[in-house]
Amino acid sequence: MIYTIPLILSQGDLLMSGLEDTFGSGYQQIIIGFVVFILGAFWGGLEADGNMSASDVYWPALTMLAGGMITLLGISFGTDHEDDRTNDLMDAIDDLTARLDKLVALTTGKDSEE
Question: pTM here?
Fold first, then answer.
């Protein structure tokens, strides 16, 4: 019995290193977010009955939303891979800003940016 504890712990380390290889350094945040989401879903399932109202599932839904956001942030910003980053919004804002600057320069007759 005593010899099985280090074996179990070493298998847990293998699992965690595999998750770190797959998800990057944000794997702990992904796991925490997933657990929070599941707890919120379980809590909402316990609250669900025949005469429930929206106020009965408010806190479970908010818990699920928080878990989902934590998971998405862990996936988006916790990885070391450039392709996994969610910088599409910033790229779109930069593109729109460049287009507006070009349009303003064309309408005012200025060739250089200020």
Answer: 0.56
Q: Which of 63, 44, 62, 65 is nearest to 53 (CA)?
A: 44
CB 26 within 8 A of CB 77: yes
Map residue 84 onto helix, strand or coil.
Answer: helix
Do residue 56 and residue 41 come from a single domain?
Answer: yes
Are the beta carbons of 93 and 80 closer than 8 angstroms? no
In this structure, are 17 and 69 located in the same domain? yes
Distances (CA, A) of 26 to 20, 81, 85: 8, 11, 12
| Orientation of helix 27-47 relative to helix 58-77, angle to 10° | 160
Record the tokens describing residue 104, joined without a space: 């303003």
Residue 85, C-beta contacts closer than 8 angstroms, at least 6 positions apart: 76, 77, 79
Per-residue pLDDT at 15: 61
Which regions of the chain are under pLDDT 50?
Answer: 1, 4-9
